Please model this.
Amino acid sequence: MQKLLDAGVDRATVLSRFVDNLDEDSEQILRDLLARHPEPDEKPPGPDTRNRRPR
Model:
C-alpha cells in the first residue's frame, strides 16, 4: 500500500480500497488507532465516545 501511496496515485482511492477490504476486527483496530491521533485542534475522545460498529 505504501508503494501505491508513494507512486502518486489517487491516495483517497488507495486508502478507500484498503479500508473496504478490512475485516471487522482490523477495522476496529484502525478506528482505535485513528482515535489516538486527533486533528491538531481537537482533543482525543474519551473511552465512552469511541464509535464502535455494532456486531
User: Anything to note?
Assistant: The mean pLDDT is 79. The helical segments are 2-6, 11-20, 24-35. DSSP finds three helices and no strands in the chain.
